[in-house]
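sanity check this record:
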Amino acid sequence: MLVLLLEPLSLPLGIKINAFSALVVLGLLVGRFLVRRAALFYGPGDATHAVAAYTACILGGIVGAHLLDVLAYDPEVLRKEGPIVLLKVWKGSASIGGALGGFGAILLYFRSQNVRASAYFDALALGIVPAWAVTRVACAVAHDHPGIHTSSWLAVRFPDGPRYDLGLLDAVVLAVLGAVLWWLARKKRPEGALCGVFALGYSVPRFFLDFLRATDLPNSERRIHGLTPGQWICPLLALGGIWLLRHGLATSTPAPPAVRSEAAAP
């Protein structure tokens, strides 16, 4: 059984920082570094726009994660507190909403710059996936995504016994996916292919992992016709990934040689 502790980190001068916050900040910094590095090879070779889009992704992700949490996972809080709760972005978040909000913010940023967004998708994917993996470790440390009871060696000790920790399982999926993306990135791939692998490679396992989420706790995530809100969104992400992969392969196929006319023949 795995035991993850939530202890403050002691820094010089008596400063203490929560492990969750430290890991989130670390993940965001890792993502920024990797996006800048990847942008020099993938896309137009423009790290400036790529990093700016990554920053927009973070901000949009925070907003999107909160809005989905309130509107889909916990609509009761909206009825209790009113629309003002939509502005309290620190009060609840859903990662799949963060993915949607982040993607929307990326598109808005490139639209504002009159720059083609799809040219940067692969570089962004190479940074966002490892960053997301690290921030999911923060969720695992905080134990804020309890799963069903289990005796598996992957179980984490919760107050009421061993359970799956969905933050930990999600972190493992993202870490493996990040490694696969960087392995694929050793060779130049068709535009959008890496982002397509990201969308497809995350949405499919995430759909099935959500079946392991706890249903017996007072704060268990809401189900809509037996599925979590995230599970309803995953097929859309998967379709987006398939489209990116097909589009990348189609546009990378060399055109057939032109037929020479007899007049041009020697």
